[in-house]
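Worked problem 6 (solution included).
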Amino acid sequence: MAEELSGDALIDAFFAENPDMADGMPLQKAELRSGFLTLVGRPNAGKSTLLNAIMGKKIAITSSTAQTTRHRFRGIYNRPDAQLIIVDTPGVHKPHDALGEELNESAMKGMEDVDVVAFLLDASMPFGRGDEWVLKQVAASDAQKVLVVSKTDKVDADALAAQIDAARGTADWDAICPLSSVTGEGVQEFIDEVCDLLPPGPRWFPEDMETDQPLEVMIAEFIREKILYHTHDEVPHAVGVVCEEFEYDRKKKLYRIYALIYVEHESQKGIIIGKGGRGISRIGTEAREDLEQLLGKRVYLDLRVKVRKNWRRDLNQIRRFGYGEGN
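Solution. The predicted structure is:
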């Protein structure tokens, strides 16, 4: 006859045989939370770098050049209990042309109809009037609000505390998160804070989807990033890139990509092409390496440079490139 159990032993035996029960009730799966998070801030505050850190891979281009981000770029972060759609916006700045105005409008629209707005404040830069202006827009939002003090790896504890104090009273913050996207310190804590602020909801995108950005747009942006790294002064701002053709050669197992680089003046074209074509060759080689990582296949990349005078003042051309609200 089997040994009879009683008391704690009986309870332990029951739950050993019924692991989906606790306290006499079936254990429920954690409620799924989902929603949209917008990253806003001044140029070079670290928005795209934070997006990449959250995703654990490069999906958005980065550089020290203002106006690097020209699209409202969306990354899709999944974990068992949440789906977070992250909207990376252009840096808010004083516009000097139609492109700048369009990018500012895109950044402001990025705060509409989202669940959480995160304002990024660069810990290594003085708190200024530009930050104050953006913060007024953030404060007016109906979304939950998170203050992110970025680039903490560049400052000491006193400077970090000063930045937090400068922005603390500018809005009704639901969370304050200092972090460094470069070292990773504070990034997971930021994700946890935001996911806690999301409402219950479904997965809006498939779990294996990392961005809703078309591949042609990502290809054009990866090429533009290399131009930003290797040119200077006015050239980066005057560059637009379009992926004209994108096809997969099954026999050779490679992608063939044909892209056009637009500039505003012949002198800028010469800078990009470089002496003996060395400039465009270097840009193409580095872009191809990144694109092969992105696509997981070998890439043949054909780059050509064209002049389209004053395209940044032409709203139709700006939207042809997919920048700002044209995206």
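Discussion: The chain is about 35% helix and 25% strand.
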